[in-house]
Design brief:
Distance between the termini: 25 Å
Structural class: mainly alpha
Radius of gyration: 18 Å
Number of strands: 0
Oligomer: single chain
Shape: globular
Order of helices and strands: HHHH
Helix content: over 70%
Number of helices: 4
Strand content: under 5%
Length: about 100
């Protein structure tokens, strides 16, 4: 296998790991809030992590009325999960690549 294919395969593994981790975390927090309504603050504070993508969807979407309350959140969180998974995988590959270059000198 060439280095390029191996690199892509490793990136995809990291991306899927980050994607599944975030989905599990969001679902777990959602179930926690359903079971214990007093934990609502935990869910709200966790969603601050996705505020940039929610805001971007709100800006681009041009939603009106009640849709402006619902759709940016419903579209922004999955978009944030995808974006942050790509960022995580790229940063991890960059840092691990720099670390392996530094150890070979």
């Amino acid at each position: 296998m060439t280095k390029d294919k191996s690199s892509t395969k490793h990136f995809l593994k990291l991306f899927i790991f980050a994607l599944v981790g975030q989905i599990v975390a969001v679902l777990f927090l959602g179930m926690l809030v359903i079971a214990f309504p007093a934990m609502n603050a935990v869910l709200v504070s966790a969603f601050y992590f996705y505020t940039p993508t929610i805001f971007l969807v709100w800006l681009i979407g041009g939603f009106k009325g009640e849709a402006a309350l619902i759709w940016p959140m419903l579209l922004g969180i999955p978009m944030g999960i995808l974006v942050y998974s790509v960022i995580f995988a790229r940063l991890y590959r960059y840092v691990s690549g720099r670390r392996s270059q530094g150890s070979s000198d």
